[in-house]
Each structure stands twice: as C-alpha cells, then as structure tokens.
Design a protein that fits this description.
The complex is a heterodimer. Chain A is an alpha+beta fold. Chain A has two domains: 160 residues, Aldehyde oxidase/xanthine dehydrogenase, molybdopterin binding domain (Aldehyde Oxidoreductase, domain 4), CATH 3.30.365; 139 residues, Aldehyde oxidase/xanthine dehydrogenase, molybdopterin binding domain (Aldehyde Oxidoreductase, domain 4). Helices cover 29% and strands 24% of the residues of chain A. In chain A, the strands form three sheets. A four-stranded mixed beta sheet of chain A has the order 1-9-10-11. In chain A, helix 1 runs parallel beside helix 2, helix 2 packs across helix 3 and helix 4 crosses helix 5. Chain A starts with a strand and ends in a 10-residue tail after the last helix. Chain B is α+β, with helices and mostly antiparallel strands. Chain B has three domains: 96 residues, Aldehyde oxidase/xanthine dehydrogenase, a/b hammerhead (Aldehyde Oxidoreductase, domain 3); 195 residues, 2-Layer Sandwich (Aldehyde Oxidoreductase, domain 4); 84 residues, Aldehyde oxidase/xanthine dehydrogenase, molybdopterin binding domain (Aldehyde Oxidoreductase, domain 4, 2-Layer Sandwich). Chain B is 29% helix and 22% strand. In chain B, strands 3-5-1-12-9-10-11 form a seven-stranded mixed beta sheet, sandwiched between helices. Chain B has a five-stranded mixed beta sheet with strand order 7-15-14-13-8. A three-stranded antiparallel beta sheet of chain B has the order 4-2-6, with no helix packed on it. In chain B, helix 8 links the parallel strand 10 and strand 11. The chains are: A alpha+beta, B alpha+beta. At the A-B interface, strand 1, helix 1, strand 4, strand 9 and strand 10 of A face strand 7, strand 8, helix 8, strand 11 and helix 10 of B.
C-alpha cells in the first residue's frame, strides 16, 4: 500500500571556495553604436552564465541584454578567471564585469558631461541613454556618446577590472576566520509516496524556496533549481557507483547506473526568497550548487514520515527501504544497513 | 565462368554507373549544407528591454541549442585529424613492470603511441600534484590510463589498445576509507599517509555544552560515490602550429587553471599555449581539471597532426572525478524545548586515488556540517582519505549535499524524540541576520528563516498538520 509522507530540509551554502584566492578579471568594450562586448575567462557550461553576465554588464551600462555580446573561454582573448566552479560566476565574475563596465561608463560620462553642461558625477546611464540624474529629458543617446568618445575625442570607452572576494584565512587550530564572502540559504519540502510492499519511493512534489540575492534572471534561477533537484533525487534514491572486490567499477554505464529521468521528476514549485547582498553585483549572490543540496535530505525525511524508517545510507533504493520496513515490522530496532 | 554469364548487361551498367557516381561524389569539394533556418534571428522582446537585471531574458545560446547548431568539440573536424584512445589499467593497485607498444605502433593507421614516461612532468592536481597524466611506475586505481594511441580512425585506435601489453606486479590495495585510516593499512601513495587532508573547527566548549543539555542524540550517516554524468563527455583536440605554439580545444570549465596545468605538465611557457573551451555540455564540477589534454598534445606533437579525444561513457565513470562518499558521525546536545547547545561532528571523506578538489570539499563540508543553525559549542573534525578507487573531486555542492543529508536527518530524529514539529525546531535554531557562523564569521543577508516560512506556506505545511 502506498503511504504518503512529507519532509523538510534547509541548508546554507557559501559562494566561492576556500584554500586559495578566487579572482576574476574582465574587460568591457563599448562599441561606437552603444552596444558592448564583454571579455571574460569563465566558461558557459550549460547554466546560462553568459546570459547573466551580459545582463550585469547591460545593467551597469544602461543598455539591454541583447546589446551585449560576451566573449568567453579563450586564454588568448580573455582575462584570468577561476572558472565555472563553486557557484562563483554570478558573484565573482559578475562583480568584475560590473566594475569593468563602470570604468567604461566613466569614460562615456566624461565625454557626455561637457555636452550636457554638467559634471560627470551628475550623470547616469539608463534606457540606452546618458542622462542627467533627475532630469531624464536632458540626455544623449548612448550610441552617440560612444561614437563621440571614439571618433571625436579619440578615447574609446573601455574598462578593465578584477575582483576577489574578501576573506580571512582560517586559524589552523580552531578553524576560526572568514572563509567566504557570503552565503545563500534555502529550504525544500518534499511529498513522497512510499509503497510499503515494494519499498519503492515516488517523489510527487517539491517546493523549493531559494535565496540567491537579487535574481539577475529569475527564469535561469528556476532552471538551476529544477536541474539541481534532479541531481538531488538521483543522490537520494538511485545513483551509486559500485565496485567489485578488486576495486573495479561494476556499473560504469547508463544501463546499470540508474539516474532519474524526466518520468521521475516531480512537480516543482520554485520560490525565490527576497534578499539583497550589498557585496554582490546588484545584490546578487549565486544559485548553481545549492539547488541540489537539500533535496536528498528532504526526501529521506519524507520517507521517514511516510513509513517510519530512517535510512542512514544513501541511496534509499527500494531494496533498502523495503528491508528497513520489514525490520520495523518484525519489531526489531532497525539495524544500520551495510554501506 | 558460369556465374559471370548470369550477370546481365543492365546489371553491369548499373554497377559501373554507381561506381562512377561514387568516384565523382568523392572528388566533389566539401560544401557546407545550406543553412536550414533564417539567419535574421528574431530577438525576443525581453532581451531588448531595460533595465536588464531582473529580466527573464532568454539565453544567448538558446537558439543555437534549439536548432542543434551548437558546435561542441566532437563537432569540430580538422584536416588530417587523428583520433586518440587511452588504455586503462583495469587493476586497482600494481607496479608497472613493462609496457610493450610495438605491436600497436606497427598497425596500419596508427600514427603515434604515448606512455607516461614520455610526459615531461607527469603529475598534476589542484592542491597536491599526486595524479599522473598517464600512470608510469605505479597504478593507483583501475581507471588509470597507462598508454595512449592516435590513429586515423577511432576504431583503429581502439583496436590498437588491445595490442598494447602491460605487465603488472600486483600491490596491496585498500578500498574502504575506514580501513585506509588504520596504521597498518596498505598505503595508496607510499611513503605518505593515507590521510592527506584534515580540518578542525572548534567553537565554545562542547563538553560544557553536552553537560548542560537535557538530551543527547547520536547518528551515523553514509553516502555513496556518484558521477556527474554530463551529457557531453570530456573531449579535447590538440594541434600545434609551425612556431611550436599549442592550441587545445577542450571541455574544461576552468581554462585559466587548465592552461597552467598544461604549461606545467608539458614544460611550455604559457605564451605558447592557447586554450579554447567553446560551449561545454554540462560540467557540475566534473570538468574543472585537465584529463587527457597533455596526452593529446604530445600525441599531436609526435604525429604532426591535430588529435581529438572523446571519453567513452565508461571512461566518464571510471577515469574522471566523482562525488566523495562520506561517513558522518553526529552527536548533538539539546534542551528539552529543542534548542541545540552542542554538536560534535566527525567526517571521513573517501577521496579515492587522488586529492583533486578534496581540500575544498573537506573545507566546505566542515564549515557547513553543523547546518544553518546557531550553535555556541561546536567541534567538527574531518579527514580526507586515499583509497585505490576512482578519485573523488569537485561536484555540485562540494560536500554540502552529504552533510545536509546527515544534519537534516539528525534534526528530524531530534524533533520526533522531543515531540516537536520539524519546521518549528528549525525555526528555533536557524541563523538570524548577524549570527556568527561556525568559523566566527558575522553573517549578512541571512534569510534561512524566510526560506523556511516561504516553503512551508507554499507547501501548506501547517494546514496539512501532523
């Protein structure tokens, strides 16, 4: 008989990594028509990072996402970057790009200020215009300013910058210090059905409330959450590399190494928790890794809620869950299953 | 001959014609097929709007993916390009007595063969350089590469691997991390200890904290080894120009580090290395480090041709990094109403044969192991241990999914024993803005309680009741 259960898990997760410095550098070049090119050494590995980084540059320059082209992943053309790792791209590379864009923008302001009869610090870049703060009608098209900067003034608007999260090394004795610049937080709540005759677990619904600071692109945040949950389900219920006695893998293939497919995916409801981190670009932190952190914990708590057994070794395969149910039925205290 | 008479003239003509046509088509210059979609891309309105931040902007690479036009490494072909394959040890711990590649070298179509001894600096690694590019003297796990072949086709390269004979002298091996911790366990990297990284976090006084607690709970949790399983396997192409400058197209997620590793292993100045990563078909931490790149570069140098290597799905499992299996001991002291007063955590990470990103995983796991909770008295100790298995490295979460599974299972057990709602016990203990982390860091933009409340509200946690 299928038994319904629900489980909750919350987590915290740092943005960036420890042990060594974690810098990113970036170059932002305005084109003469008011569009821009960004040079970054990070790599798009499927998460949509180049789109997010383009949005950050566009925001700083007051232009649209599509006005920015991002050149990436080429050691000859792009500056140093510690890469697509540790949920750092939006936060660290994003900060570097924002700073670099700010420097290119400063050149545009210097060029526009005398034309608008104000000081550079009285200007802002918005809606593809350089305008006087508080007097948006006193403005110049950003393309016109960029063109003048390059063609008339001989000062192309280009900016370069780097950023490294401020950290304090940990004391080796006590581990005290500031290992990361900031952290994100999340909660996932899971509803499962557990078949108490087969041990099979079906994940029905997951509510995921994630903090990522300012969501630069809410759609891509949702994509990350959904992808992370699928990895979390695999960790919780299916995936496991097995070895024989001689240390050779038994199941190094997708026939015998079981991963969740689209059919195993539950209904997912994503909530983005409102937050703003003053150290991130426009308040953003990151979201890549944390999305897969609480899923397994919440599923295992839901299994416990459904059938009253505590599985302490992952994955909670049907065999393992059924064995635990049988032990419980036999009235014995559930023994720890072997790893 | 009798048989020949049966072939009619028409059949003969047909055969000759098809041969002519095949010949003709083979001589045609390669012409790219016509583009089957409008070049003038429709830009979705959302990508044209300002301000840019907060927009649900479609991805800049979405149209390429949607049309199947993204060029991954395996879509790239260069004139004269060769295909490389790597022979895997398939023994977990052994001394390599000899490697005979002569029969493979002699095969038609085989253009270059490489062994570990030919690699200028045959070691790499993010923290410890304990991983050979190709095993030379010793095999540390069954997925180690021992020799590589570049041939005109992938099939020939694969066949050539069979002709390479390696003589092994089996060595003692250890596969269980708890066994590996013991003094008398076989050493994976002698003379070094199997414990290659440790970390401690100490805050307050746990003995006092436990003494002041009404109840003490203990739990032991274990997790398994898993693979990243990116859609695109590890792939790379290496090519040299006549100035001796190397270009590597690779699925690396970290080109800055990748170039440094290539410069070190090949003993080349960085100015003579060009790394291009294009669009990578999934990473999840599995593509942080070089794998076959130096091998392809050296095969290409030997053969004087570009060389491509694409890992099989099997190699993705056996020969690239995985997620660390954890063994986690938790002990927690609480008041009767559920407030955590003290927690002691011991983590053992099974690192497999090489360090890779174990130090980062160990560090994050230690710092995160107590959960997003205010705990004044805390002691966390963690060890990363070598075993003769596939190496564990970076993977989405760096030790956080494992410890979260432990601390949140433990939390529910405590709540059940005290008769508390799992949501309430979390809200009672969760960090606030300005709380001190286990490392004494004052936390900012803390919204763990908000996330609990928001998820509970959306789920209908309280309405559903117990």
């Amino acid at each position: 008989m299928k038994r319904r259960g629900r489980g909750i898990a919350c987590m915290w997760y740092p943005v960036g990594y420890t042990v060594t410095a974690n810098p990113s550098a970036a170059v932002v070049k305005m084109n003469e028509d008011g569009t821009a090119t960004v040079l970054t050494g990070t790599v798009e590995t499927g998460q949509g990072s180049l789109t997010v980084l383009g949005q950050i540059a566009a925001q700083e320059l007051g232009i649209a996402t599509d006005d920015v082209y991002v050149v990436s992943a080429d050691t000859d053309a792009t500056p140093a970057d510690m890469g697509a790792i540790a949920s750092r791209t939006t936060y660290v590379t994003g900060n570097a790009i924002r700073l670099a864009a700010g420097r290119a923008k400063a050149i545009l302001f210097e060029v526009a200020a005398p034309l608008l009869g104000v000081k550079p610090d009285q200007l802002e870049a918005r809606d593809r215009k350089i305008q006087v703060k508080g007097f948006p009608q006193r403005c110049l098209a950003i393309g016109e300013v960029a063109n003048r900067a390059q063609v008339d003034m001989g000062q192309p608007a280009i900016g370069a910058a780097s950023w490294n999260p401020p950290t304090v090394a940990l004391d080796p004795e006590t581990g005290q210090g500031k290992p990361f610049s900031t952290y994100v937080y999340a909660t996932q709540i899971v509803e499962v059905d557990v078949d108490d005759e087969t041990g099979e677990v079906e994940v029905l619904r997951i509510v995921a409330a994630h903090d990522c600071g300012t969501p630069i692109n809410p759609m891509l945040v949702e994509g990350q959450v959904e992808g992370g949950i699928s990895m979390g389900i695999g960790l919780a219920l299916h995936e496991q590399i097995l070895f024989d006695d001689a240390g050779r893998q038994v199941n190094p293939n997708l026939t015998n190494y079981i991963m969740p497919t689209s059919l195993d995916m539950p209904e997912i409801e994503v909530d983005i928790v409102e937050s703003f981190d003053p150290t991130g670009p426009f308040g953003a932190k990151g979201v890549g890794e944390p999305t897969s952190v609480p899923t397994a914990a919440a599923i295992l708590n839901a299994i416990h809620d459904a059938v009253g057994v505590r599985i302490t070794t992952l994955p909670a395969t049907a065999d393992k869950v059924l064995a635990a149910i049988q032990v419980k039925r036999a009235g014995a205290r559930p023994a720890l299953p072997a790893a | 001959m009798a048989d020949e008479k049966r072939i009619t003239t028409a059949e003969k003509e047909h055969t000759l014609e098809s041969l002519r046509r095949a010949d003709h088509e083979m001589r045609l210059p390669a012409v790219a097929p016509a583009v089957p979609y409008p070049i003038e891309a429709l830009v979705p309105e959302v990508r044209q709007q300002t301000p840019a931040v907060g927009q649900r902007a479609t991805r800049s690479d979405g149209r390429l993916h949607g049309l199947g036009q993204t060029r991954y490494i395996d879509d790239l072909v260069f004139p004269g390009m060769l295909y490389a394959r790597i022979k895997r040890a398939n023994v977990a711990s052994a001394r390599i007595r000899s490697i005979d590649t002569s029969a493979a070298q002699a095969m038609p179509g085989v253009m270059a063969v490489l062994t570990g001894r030919e690699i200028p600096v045959n070691s790499f690694g993010a923290t410890l350089q304990d991983q050979p590019v190709l095993a030379d003297e010793r095999v540390f796990h069954a997925g180690d590469g021992v020799a590589a072949v570049a041939a005109v086709t992938e099939q020939i390269a694969t066949e050539a691997l069979e002709k390479i004979t390696v003589e092994y002298e089996p060595l003692p091996a250890v596969f269980d991390p708890l066994e590996a911790l013991k003094e008398d366990a076989p050493k994976v990297h002698p003379p070094h200890s199997n414990i290659y990284a440790t970390k401690v976090i100490r805050k307050g006084d746990i003995e006092k904290g436990f003494a002041a607690s009404d109840r003490i709970f203990e739990g032991l949790f274990r997790t398994q080894m898993v693979e990243h399983v990116s859609l695109e396997p590890h792939a790379a192409i290496a090519d040299w120009d006549p100035n001796g400058r190397l270009t590597v197209w690779s699925t690396l997620g970290r080109i800055t580090l990748g170039r440094a590793d290539l410069a070190r292993t090949l003993k080349l100045p960085m100015s003579r290395i060009h790394v291009i990563a294009t669009i990578v078909g999934g990473n999840f931490g599995g593509k942080n480090e070089i794998t076959q790149e130096p091998v392809l570069a050296l095969l290409s140098k030997k053969a004087g041709r570009p060389v491509k290597g694409v890992f099989t799905r099997g190699e993705e499992f056996t020969s690239t990094t995985t997620r660390h299996p954890f063994i986690m001991d938790y002990k927690t002291g609480v008041t009767r109403d559920g407030r955590i007063l003290a927690r002691k955590v011991r983590l053992v990470l099974d690192g497999g044969a090489y360090c890779s990103f174990s130090e980062t995983t160990l560090g994050k796991a230690c710092i995160l192991a107590s959960g997003p909770y205010k705990i004044d008295n805390l002691f966390v100790e963690a060890f990363a241990v070598y075993t003769n298995k596939t190496m564990a490295g970076a993977m989405r979460g760096f030790g956080a999914p494992q410890t979260c599974f432990a601390y949140e299972s433990h939390m529910d057990d405590i709540a059940a024993a005290l008769g508390l709602d799992p949501l309430d016990i979390r809200l009672l203990n969760a960090f606030d803005e300005g709380s001190a982390s286990p490392t004494g860091q004052v936390l900012q933009s803390v919204v763990v309680k908000q996330s609990l409340a928001k998820a509970a509200e959306r789920f209908g946690w309280k309405e559903a009741g117990q």
